[in-house]
């Protein structure tokens, strides 16, 4: 059941993003920024946590989940370190995912022969 819930929640998030790109003049970059910001705002309001509990990876893997991770890190660090934690907590929380993306991207570039689009 966990896989089905993750698939449904992640699919709904992706459908919303696709509809925004197809039905408006928003570019993928605009949708990316919108989703990260929305993830932070929904987390700060306490709305995104129940979605994460229900959807699991379907809610944390898409780009909304990155905003969720940033906000959770900032909130946690603010409670322990004060106002300075608001600036450092999000960076610390997101560092592992960003580092993994860079490392795995580099490994794939070494294994495969990347070509630029023409």
Automatic annotation (TrEMBL):
InterPro entries: Spore_V_AE (IPR014204), SpoVA (IPR005562). This is Stage V sporulation protein AE. It comes from Crassaminicella thermophila. The lineage of its organism: Bacteria, Bacillati, Bacillota, Clostridia, Eubacteriales. Keywords: Membrane, Transmembrane, Transmembrane helix. The chain crosses the membrane at residues 6-24, 31-48, 54-71, 83-112. It comes from the Bacteria.
């Amino acid at each position: 059941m966990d896989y089905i819930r993750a698939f449904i929640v992640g699919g709904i998030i992706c459908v919303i993003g696709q509809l925004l790109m197809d039905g408006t003049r928003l570019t993928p970059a605009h949708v990316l920024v919108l989703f990260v910001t929305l993830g932070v705002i929904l987390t700060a309001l306490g709305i995104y946590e129940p979605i994460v509990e229900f959807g699991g990876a379907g809610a944390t893997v898409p780009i909304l989940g990155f905003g969720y991770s940033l906000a959770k890190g900032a909130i946690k660090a603010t409670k322990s370190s004060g106002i300075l934690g608001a600036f450092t907590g999000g960076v610390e929380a997101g560092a592992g995912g960003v580092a993994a993306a860079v490392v795995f991207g580099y490994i794939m570039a070494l294994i495969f022969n990347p070509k630029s689009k023409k």
